[in-house]
Amino acid sequence: MAEERDTGESTQMATYGYHDNKKSHLDRLSRIEGQVRGLRRMVESDSYCIDVLTQTAAVNKALRSFALSMLDEHLKHCVGHAVANGGEEADEKVREASEAIARLVRS
């Protein structure tokens, strides 16, 4: 999703770091969604516990990988641009990134 920004003279649409790879991210999320549906089917069909746990680990790994990819793009694009411009926006973007990293580490 793009965000409108008022620059004083005109309103511009800002794009986020993942914009250029949006289709790839959506495809990846569709695969993860399929994995989660597979887990549901496994439980509905009374699959062996270890098999369910193995698939759960695969889903967790896929989600972590997706999150790290998004974080990387955020750092390169959003944080990078803000730091280049300096000021309060840079401080805010760095704080947001630090908080996001902390959430990922805790999960």
TrEMBL record:
<keyword id="KW-0186">Copper</keyword>
<protein>
    <submittedName>
        <fullName>Metal-sensitive transcriptional regulator</fullName>
    </submittedName>
</protein>
<dbReference type="InterPro" id="IPR038390">
    <property type="entry name" value="Metal_Tscrpt_repr_sf"/>
</dbReference>
<dbReference type="InterPro" id="IPR003735">
    <property type="entry name" value="Metal_Tscrpt_repr"/>
</dbReference>
<dbReference type="Pfam" id="PF02583">
    <property type="entry name" value="Trns_repr_metal"/>
</dbReference>
<comment type="similarity">
    <text>Belongs to the CsoR family.</text>
</comment>
